[in-house]
Structure formats: C-alpha cells, structure tokens
Amino acid sequence: MRRYDVIVVGGGNAALCAALSARELGVSVALLERAPEDERGGNSSFTGGSMRFAYASAEVIHELVPDLSRDEMANTDFGTYTEERFFDDLYRITQCRTDPDLAEVLIKNSQDAIRWMRRRGVRFVPLYGRHAPNVNGRFKFSNGSTLGAAGAGLGLVNALYDIAGRAGVDVYYKAAARTLLYDDEGVHGVRVRINGKTTEMESSGVVLACGGFQANAEWRARYLGAGWELAKVRGTRFNTGDGIRMALEIGAQPYGNWSSAHAVGWDLNAPPYGDRHVGDGFGKHSYNYGIIVNADGRRFLDEGADFRNFTYAKYGKVILAQPGQFAWQVFDSKVLSLLRDTYRIRQVTKARADTLEELAGRLEGVDTRRFLETVSEFNAAVRTDVPFNPSIKDGRGTVGLEIPKSNWAQTIADGPFEAYAVTCGITFTFGGLRVNPGAEVLDMDESPVPGLFAAGELVGGIFYFNYPGGTGLTNGTVFGRIAGQGAARFAARCARS
Ligand SMILES: Cc1cc2nc3c(=O)[nH]c(=O)nc-3n(C[C@H](O)[C@H](O)[C@H](O)COP(=O)(O)OP(=O)(O)OC[C@H]3O[C@@H](n4cnc5c(N)ncnc54)[C@H](O)[C@@H]3O)c2cc1C
Predict the structure, then answer these.
(1) Is the domain of 37 the same as that of 91?
(2) What are phi and psi of 184, to 5 degrees?
(3) Domain check: are 198 and 68 in the same one?
(4) Which residue's CA is the closest to the ligand 1 atom numbered 19?
(5) Is the per-residue pLDDT at 131 higher than 70?
(6) Which spans in 168-221 are helix H?
(7) 267 touches ligand 1 (CB under 6 Å)
(8) Number of structural domains, the chain?
(9) What is the CA(262)–ligand 1 centre distance, in A?
C-alpha cells in the first residue's frame, strides 16, 4: 500500500477541507471515506448547506454572491452579523461553556473560511426561503444564517469532491479506518479496511474528521442516556464514533459535552437514518409560528423562546422525553404561508381539518379533550395588542400560562388547521476529542499527540446543550483547514529530519 504524507480519515466537509488545505502545501494526501461512493459525504451531504459567518457589511455578501440580481439586491436587507454578535450567540446558547480559545478561532476565521471555499470554486446563495421573512415586500436577514452552499449539502460535497480530485487528493471509498498506527514517536498512519481487506497505510500526519457517534445506538444510550437509542438519525449511518474511539485508545483526551447532542423535531415516520433524496426535508422547524402538544394534549415548551435557529437543536431532546417520544405541531391558517418548504414535501406526517374539533380527532395518539382545552387556554392568553412580526423577536407572547410562548403567538382559531407529527431526530453528538487552536489532538496531559490532528463533529468543547444553526459546516471548514495545514507542515518537518 502506498505511503502518503497525510492521511485524512472521513469524507465529509471537514475532511475534504483538510485534504484540500494539505494539498495546497504540496504534500501527498489520501482521503479515506468509509461510505461507498454513492453514499459519500457524511452528514455534510444531508445539510441544508447553511453556513454561519461574521460579516460587517452587505458588501461582503455581494462579493461572495457576485451573481445577485439587481432586484435581489434592492429587495433584500442583508443586515450585518458582526463577530461580537457571533460571540454573544455562541456564549449565550452554550451557557458560556464553549471553549474560549476554540470559539475565538472559529469566529475570527469564519468569514475567511467562506471566502476560501468561494475561491476554490464553491458557490453560495442567500437562504431566502428559510431565514429571511418577507416583510412588506423586502427580505430581511437578521440572525447570521445568511448564505448557504448552492445545491445545499449535496451540492457542497459534490463540489468539494470535484475540487479535491482535480487537486490530486487520492480518494478511497469503502475505506473504514480501524486503528491508528502509533508508537512513542507519535502516529504513523492507520489500519484500514478497504473493500473488505484490512491493510496498513502509513503516513507522517493523520487528520481525524470522521464524525461524532450519533449513529451508534449503544453509545447514544451509554453517553446521552436512557431512551436515546430510540431517536432517529437525521444523517449518515456511518458516523459511529470510530475516530473518537481510535484516538481515545492511544491516550487522547475526551472533551466537551458528552451527555448532550444536537437533536431536532423530525418527521415521526422518517426512516431510521437520513434519506439523501429528502435530505433536511424531514426537519420541521417552523414551530415558532404555532404550538406543540404531546400525547396528553399539553404544551411542554416555549415555541417562541427565540428565533428557531437558536432553539431547534435543543428541542429534539425535549420531544424525546414526551410520552411515546412524539408530538404534534399545530398551526392555523394565519401562519400557513410562513411554514418552510419542508412542510410541503410528499413524505410528511400531516393532519388537516376545517375545524379544531375535526383536527383534534385526527391527531393520532393525542388526548382530544385535553388538546381542545389547551388550545382555548392558549388562545385566551395571547397578547393580541402587540403586532405580529416574524422578522424580529416581536414580544407578542402569552400572559399567565404555566409554559409561556414568548414571541410570535397567534391564536389557533381560524381554519383550515394543519398539524405535523414529529419525533426526535439526532444530528450530531457534542462530546469528542480535545484539540488546541492548531487542531492538534491533545493527550491526557494536554500535550499534542505527535502527528495527530482533528476537525469537525468529533471535536468536543465548542457546543454545549445547544447550537447556533449553520455553525457545524463553518466549524468543519475552519478547523479542517487548520488541521490539514498542520498535518502537512508536520509531514514536511518529518521529511526534513
Ligand atoms: C439533516 C442535517 C442537516 C444539517 N444542516 C446543517 C446546515 O444547514 N448547516 C450546518 O452548518 N450544519 C448542518 N448540519 C450539521 C452538519 O452536517 C455537521 O455539523 C457537519 O457536516 C459535520 O461535518 P464533518 O465533516 O465533521 O462530518 P461528516 O460530514 O458527517 O463526515 C464524516 C465522514 O466520516 C466518514 N467516516 C465515519 N467513520 C469512518 C471511518 N472509520 N473511516 C473512514 N471514514 C469514516 C463518514 O462516512 C463521513 O463521510 C446538518 C446535519 C444534518 C444531519
């Protein structure tokens, strides 16, 4: 088996950015993707492609999307998303637990990461349908999820594979790394099973970018807690914690929020793992315009606590804790036009009725009488004196309810009504390996493991309890670049010595 300067384990966004960045420094690079070619790309390929980054003016957006039409420029308020706001959001959402050194690297390099991708040939588009409500004929972006990769996750991953192929990265499919080759001097390669045959592949540097452990039901129950084996997996079936395990086996330090994960409301009848044709379509994230009830017919969370981008990733866990692990999102006709396109897909678990009583009868598994009581209590509590405005946190909440709705409260009163059944869909786990700002994997003494770098989902310490939407891909690109460059420089040093 050929020897490489750098081996990158994984085939998603973080791995591809690492491989490309290493190649930019002129070293030889192998990328090992456990999946077959037609399932390549990991969770990254299932994403909506949204990438959060800091920008201080709309000019930056115009530079990154040079093909914006005059009409689009005139009808869109791109606002700004400063580094300070990114810091505020990340710290608030993680209850100030995020590792300050890693957070700083992530945020301060976020715009440069997008610019680099753009230079390498990835195209971006504004996320009109998802994050910019149309207010009086003008689209307004206001919470940092402004651009996404053209063609969403699959578009992103296909573009990166094309670029990597042209750049001379050797890609191996059906190549599952098993263990790290390691001695007192550090890491020297991997033992890998390629097309069913186990072999040793040597290198000077190794980058681990092979995802979290969300697709490993036993680890979910072990680390996230009882019941988590019942969650559906939103993305790839290949992220079973291999990279984390391999590194821990040679003394790497576990880090971050091991008992928590990114998990959302996901169609009740979605398949057990992601479906690449549906992608992110099973996600139902417009709940902030309606109410959510459980099998007892009761509300159990504040649907309008914040923009959906700052609540969706923690509400999957709350749904998993409900009786039967399901809930129904309920909307009346006033807000139906605001529901995201994922509510219109063919594979949807939906009930529709002209009257509330009829709807109640169609909410399978729900206590009908209690549901109708919940709706009338909710309706009586809505502050109708405050105008409804989806582009800001409008303060149109409820008064006097045990579980308030803080913003965007609308009565559930005007038919036709629609309801959507959801369960918990896990996206990725928050616990992982400890790295320093140079993406070097640290051991239990906090010394770098020579030759070992990591990036993406399998790095712990950045996300705790919750997650600001669109940060996973940016995180993979920022640290993937650093890891790829670090591994290439390490290999060059080894070659000289
Ligand atoms: C439905 C969905 C929608 C999402 N939407 C967004 C979004 O819009 N914006 C955003 O920022 N984030 C989003 N995310 C989160 C995002 O996908 C992740 O944060 C990000 O893609 C992680 O990138 P990664 O490269 O670390 O992991 P992945 O992209 O999952 O790549 C891991 C790779 O490792 C491979 N692998 C696993 N084990 C091995 C092994 N032993 N040997 C070799 N290879 C192995 C896998 O096959 C895979 O290719 C979404 C996730 C899902 C599931």
Answers:
(1) yes
(2) -60, -25
(3) yes
(4) 472
(5) no
(6) 217-219
(7) no
(8) 2
(9) 12
* Ligand 1 neighbourhood includes 207 CB (under 6 angstroms): no
Q: Do 268 and 420 touch, CB atoms closer than 8 A?
A: no
238 lines ligand 1 (CB under 6 A): yes
pLDDT, average across residues 383-390: 94
Specify whether 52 is located in the same domain as 185.
Answer: yes
Shared domain check, 388 and 293: yes
The protein residue with its alpha carbon nearest to ligand 1, atom 46, reads 42
Does residue 301 have a pLDDT over 70?
Answer: yes
Ligand 1 neighbourhood includes 241 CB (under 6 angstroms): no
pLDDT in tens, 176-193: 999 999 999 999 999 999
Q: How far apart are CA 145 and CA 375, in angstroms?
A: 32
**Ligand 1 centre and the CA of 216: distance in Å?**
14
Domain CATH number, residue 32: 3.50.50.60
Minimal CA–CA distance to 468: which of 314, 339, 316? 314
Looking up tokens 């309706």, which residue turns up? 379
State if residue 11 touches ligand 1 by the CB under 6 angstroms criterion.
yes
Task: Specify whether 186 is located in the same domain as 124.
Answer: yes
Residue where a domain terminates, one of 410, 425, 440: 425
Would the CB of 9 count as within 6 Å of ligand 1? yes
Q: What is the domain range of residue 317?
A: 262-425
* Closest residue CA from atom 4 of ligand 1: 47
- Return the SS3 of 435: strand
Q: Give CA–CA dist 405/416, Å, rounded.
A: 22
Q: Is the CB of 309 under 6 A from ligand 1?
A: no
Is 309 strand, coil or helix?
helix
Are 419 and 461 in the same domain? no
Q: Which atom from ligand 1 is nearest to the alpha carbon of 458?
A: 26
Ligand 1 atom with the shortest distance to the CA of 239: 37
Q: What is the CATH number of the domain that holds 293?
A: 3.90.700.10
102-114 pLDDT tens trace: 999 999 999 999 9
